[in-house]
Amino acid sequence: MTQIFSYFSKSIRRSLYLLVGCAILPALLIILYVGLAQRSQAVAEANEYMANLTNSVVTIQTEKTSQIKVLLQTLSSVPVVKDQDIAKCKDLLAHIMANDPAVANVLLVSRNRDVLVSGRPFTGPVRLADRKWFKDAIRTHDFSVGGYAIGRILGTIPIMQFGYPLLGEDWSVLGGAVRCL
Fold this sequence. Notes:
By secondary structure, this protein is of the alpha+beta class. The protein has a single domain (about 1-180), classed as 2-Layer Sandwich (Beta-Lactamase). The chain has 4 helices and 5 strands; from the N terminus they run αααββαβββ. A 5-stranded antiparallel beta sheet has the order 2-1-5-4-3, sandwiched between helices. It starts with a helix and ends with a strand.
């Protein structure tokens, strides 16, 4: 009799385990489904947020680049800059930098690619002949955009570089007006 009771108790125990498992399984599946749905929604929201953020950064960068282009076009047409009057250019570049805190530096570069004037003081000769944005501005006779780089004059500060050529009346290159942001 104890064997029969033992057999039934094991069977009842197994039945109870099976019953509890069947009761819990749907709840676990629902929890898993809801969790995956929430995760998918969170990923979709994060993707949308990043897309909006990226579009905002692109818009700001495009506007800044347009502003820089206008500034450099205007700067390159100023007679003091065209004549490369060092003393007056120092004052002009210092005024530009004082009124635009986003500017890392503004430079005037000679025909042989030496920095003539800088909005920030520097020592020793600085040549920009190897910089892509400078080569492009001289080659195309137009506004050029360089990549992010570590500025030679500023040291460890990463900057975005822009250039515009100084052109004579006959479209010969007199030098370059440069703005680093």
